[in-house]
Amino acid sequence: MVYLFHFELPVEEATWTCLATAYRPYLKCLTVSEVDACAAAVMHLSRGYDAVDRRPRPSGDDEGGGDDVGPESAAGDRADDDQPEITFLTFYYVNTKKADITMPSGKRDQPSVEDNHDGTVSLKYDPKEEGLHELFVKYNGENVQGSPFKFHVDSITSGHITAYGPGLTHGVSGEPSDFTIYTKGAGAGGLSLAVEGPSKADISCHDNKDGTVSVTYLPTAPGEYRISVKFGDKHIKGSPYNSKVTGEGRKRNQISVGSCSEVSLPGKVLDKDFRLLNASIQAPSGLEEPCFLKRLPNGNLGISFTPREIGQHVVSVKRMGQHIVNSPFKITVGEREVGDAKKVKVSGTGLKEGKTHIENLFTVDTRSAGYGGLSLSIEGPSKAEIQCKDNEDGTLNISYRPTEPGYYIVNLKFADHHVDGSPFTVKVTGEGSNCQREKIERRREAVPLTEVGSNCKLTFKMPGVLPYDLSSTVTSPNGITEDAEINEIEDGLYAVHFVPKELGVHTVSVRYKEVHIPGSPFQFTVGPLSDGGAHRVHAGGSGLERGEQGQPCEFNVWTREAGPGSLAISVEGPSKAEIDFKDRKDGSCYVSYVVGEPGEYRIGIKFNDQHIPDSPYKLFISPAMGDAHKLEVAQFPTSGVQADYPAQFIVRKNGAVGQLDAKVVSPSGTEDDCFIQSIDQDMYSVRFMPRDNGVHNIHVKFNGVHIPGSPYRLKVGKGDADPAAVHATGSGLGDVKTGHKTDFIVDTCNAGAGTLAVTIDGPSKVSMDCTEVEEGYKVRYTPLVPGEYYISLKYNGYHIVGSPFKVTCTGEDLAERGPQETSSVVVETVHKVSKAHKGGAGVVLPHFKSNASLVTSKGMGLKKAYVGKQNLFSISATDAGNNILFVGIYGPKGPCEEIFIKHMKQNNYQVSYIVRERGEYILLIKWGDDHIPGSPFKIET
């Protein structure tokens, strides 16, 4: 069998000469796909092994027509000089002549590469071993999409049932994948098939009545699929096969409709106690889950939970770990109250077929199904908008509106179990949205390990900022925080330098005007990496938030903590993007893209075929700036802004003609309009009222386009909510088991008041709650399905270090497995200060590591002082570790009246003081508990 692959060309018709010269800029845009019938017809098919899986072709068959290239005749009489071919259509063939094969023994072999002088390159290979082979095809040093291609080689006279075809090795999500099973002469026995992978794959088989069976399956999500082919309950040779399905991840939308049982508990509860309470319910089987507490109108305490079993349940309500009065409570659940997904009735054409740009309807009837939450998700080529109307009689009317044609998967679960028929496969037809998509893929190599005492560097690009507005600190695993040096390597490219003193995960904070830059705080591991993968990749930059038509939109991607892998970046929207990629060879890279049309765009960032945290990013590309660049902002508040108090700034139009508008976006994402008032013909006052503490974004637009610097970031409130100071620990962040309640602590001590958002993504929803404890907040949850869960912890919108945490869950299935499910809770935190562990109150100081003997000082103020004038000296503790500086001056009539200490970064200080009386003074300088060299100093006036 011969397969032919081609590039996606940006033109409809062109000669080879045109492609070789005019389209050199597109050499990075390589994709591969199967050949169509007309392209296959021009090839001469030689007899012998199949080109993809190298199995003998069955005898008696002619070359197939249509969309498939069928088996050829008489595999056993293959001529020695006949070799199978794999043909590639290429822009510029010289750059693609790179291919090699890994044999089952591990040895490497190379196929011959021949130029056909017609825009194609042929790869020929004569197998030397039986077993699974891997064909690596590279373009400009990078694997092409789908590479490596896997194929199985069998002996000509094996007599076994064999399978061959592209669907056994690779495919594209949302498109049918085909393969053929050759059963001639195999005798009696049952043939069975199974396809397992990231999504449900509908399988269809057709008996060709010639000893072959054609098989088609439809993968609806990218990833690795396991294809099992059995004959007589035994795997055929080569089975199970692993097929690598590529393609952009399916867009997914989900909603949940609560339908829980509510029970009133005896006794009243005070407002001040309510936020300190948590509750859990234990079923007769021993399954224990957190449940929600609510205050009932009569003042009593109520709980809300989903009944899963019949019988007596035990509810525990605790305050700071201690049972409240009358706890635990006992509740009896009857048969009619337990949610039963099998009794849910669904109807409507929207579960069978659909059309784009209209509402596709279906109805859900839960009246006979008891109590249970309803969960609906729809995934497919577009993110379908979902509408749900609860008729409040146990029935719901649901509609969805896709914007792209293709196959969609509708998952419908009740009480954590699929209803009958779910997941449903729906074929959606109609016009698409003409969405354009561009993608690049790059291999990321592992960065060399850093060791204690080595020079560590973290780079980021941030154009348009002033270096002295940037600052950085590094916190070691033991909690010691030190200033770090920031250097500008080139225009807009900065590097944070530090020398670690211990192994482990360090926290690198980078701030611009006292606000964390996108991506900060960073995790930086000194020594071997603890874990890797997509959840350890982070991205940040203005190009993921906003952009302008025709102008470069830029962002950074940090992959150092993820280890080696493949990084893929896609831009999807009204126009095709030109993507530029720059690798800084230190575990970070810089991406710039330009689009030609304004509108909504999606930026997808994947690592090893998995989305990184917060991907895909949705943003609006505004029209060309026009006169917006003329506007400037004055008197913008940089500090002292308080929640619920108005703040304002000035916008000068500088002769621009058009409409000015502005809005403020709070840390929680709530938007509020700003009040704009004309001061004179060319000047406006913009006033806004922040409602929350934390970092707000002020969007200022002119004629619908952001003015330079917009959105402006503003910290509101005195509380310094610092995500770099938040830490999470506990068994709930390690290995967990299904059906076992687990928890972890989010330590917010000394991090200020802010907004804590906890999100758990996994193969099932989890019952979760979050309650206040002495050191911060305790999050409890119960997983119901084994698999991998990712726990994201954000503080004021920033991931804390280590987030998202990867948690492995083992055990039995207690609910039905589905697509990725999301559970979340948001808590407004209060300012907390850590307490001493031995019963004493007071702040616990960090464990300082310092050496006062390495502190140096200089200046006239150390020897002589002038009455009534400022006397100066400087102190340098750059090499003395980290500690607190104490300065005191004692004179003839007591302590000196005025002493000012200014930190000049990197443990350099400038000290000034004023004395009012003549006489002899003593100057004491301590670094922590120890005097620096020369202290105490004697000062004369």
Automatic annotation (TrEMBL):
**Which windows of the sequence hold Filamin repeats?**
98-153, 153-245, 244-333, 336-428, 426-526, 529-621, 623-716, 718-809, 847-941
Bias class Basic and acidic residues marks the residues at: 51-60
Q: InterPro entries from the xrefs?
A: Filamin, Filamin/ABP280_repeat-like, Filamin/ABP280_rpt, Ig-like_fold, Ig_E-set
Query: Where does the protein principally reside?
Result: cytoplasm
Q: Name one GO biological process term.
A: actin cytoskeleton organization
One example of the protein's molecular function in GO is: actin filament binding
What GO terms fall under cellular component here? cytoskeleton
UniProt biased composition (Acidic residues): 61-70
Q: Where in the cell is it found?
A: Cytoplasm, Cytoskeleton
* UniProt region (Disordered), positions on chain: 51-80
Tell me which Pfam families the record gives: Filamin
Keyword Repeat carried by entry: yes
Q: Which SUPFAM superfamilies match?
A: E set domains (SSF81296)
Which controlled-vocabulary keywords does the entry list? Actin-binding, Cytoplasm, Cytoskeleton, Repeat
Q: What's the family?
A: Belongs to the filamin family.
Name of the protein in question = Filamin-A
